[in-house]
Design goal:
It comes from Nepenthes gracilis (Slender pitcher plant). By secondary structure, the chain is mainly alpha-helical. It has a domain of 155 residues. Helix content is 56%, strand content 2%.
Amino acid sequence: MVGDLIMHKREQGKLGGSAGGAGTPIPTPKRGRPFGSGSSGSASAAAAASIDAAAPSTLLGPTLQVHSSFADQNHKRIVLALQSGLKSELTWALNTLNLLSFKEKDEVRKDATPLAKIPGLLDALLQVIDDWRDIALPKELSKTRRVRLLGANSIVTGFGNEYEALSSTGHPAQTSVGSGSSVADMSAQKGAVKRRLKEWWYDEDGLFNLDEEGRAEKQQCAVAASNIIRNFSFMGENEIIMAQHRHCLETVFQCIEDHNNEDEELVTNALETLVNLAPLLDLRIFSSSKPSYISITEKSAVQAIMHMLDSAVKVWHCAAAELLGRLVINPDNEPFLLPFAPQIYKRLVDLLSLPAVDAQAAAVGALYNLAEVNMDCRLKLASERWAVDRLLKVVKLPHPVPEICRKAAMILESLVSEPQNRIHLLAYENAFAEILLSEGRHSDTFARILYELTARPNNKAGMTRGIWGM
């Protein structure tokens, strides 16, 4: 594949490009995504947008040029290579798909590759990840515990490794058997031991089990497949196909569920895929009539996102916050997300206190959408400790992205629209007035907030209680 491709480097001041040397290393594409972008916004997204706006197209740098008809001519070979399980074929297919799926933002020299162009590709990629997931954990950790029968004189207890009681010669280890044991019981135990030895040969250390090197290679293939799926999720042509593919969603959610044991890059790819598909994602797909490959429910899916939100890893909790903010836009997802609202609000308010501007942007974006759901959401958010104070700090600092400041001010305006919340907000009346007089950009919003707090006839008693603590 690499031999068929030519590295072209664009030089300033030249009409044509010169072919790169054979020994020139292929530049690794930048991983990660600007969390908080799109509906939420982020500092990194604004910085990237300003750079892109100022940079001419000639500064895009080296790129790998792939013929536009390559996918059409080789789509069957790509899918068959993924399904073959052969190392050489699998490596070729994954490298090819990495080139076909990756596309820089505003890159005009390369066409996107829609999944519809290659039938069966998504299922084949998911099979690569499933093959790794099947062997990801040692079997000793994945075995289900058997119920021990009290009073039974058995060599294997059912706890821990079932075969530790067997010696290397294949005979039972020396154990003391009670005087009440009969000859028939002993013969039955010996027969059971022989059956277990036969099962052990095929089940535990069979002829086709992978060694550590083989496991590492399987894991690398799974990570590469997840990276390809992530790249495809950035393309608008693939969003509907992937968001309605139950096996795809079950696989990425399962990777997130096992984040403590799974490869970090695989978990990150799965999470970024969900963030891209979130506007079209309906959690009811897990209880639909579509064929299911992995047992995932709506509740377990939300719990997996909550684990990511509570994570100390910046990329994970920022992506989880943005994911929740996008999921709640769909009214069909509200019944599954709102039971977790108290935990969501508490963690999002905690993210507002972090110095990372990406974390603040993701939290504000999620709170902005949650505050628009219903009155109960606004009441719970206003009653959350430090919520109003930290939203004010985002506006007063201010946050480097003006859109985030605007959304923080809009959240406060949504909170003050509920009469029950005005008691919580009256304590910040002086802060609101200070921003109104000193900040011209959001003065209209804070003018409306002060009007709601003080100008309404039914606010006179509330104003007294808020100022004098009566």
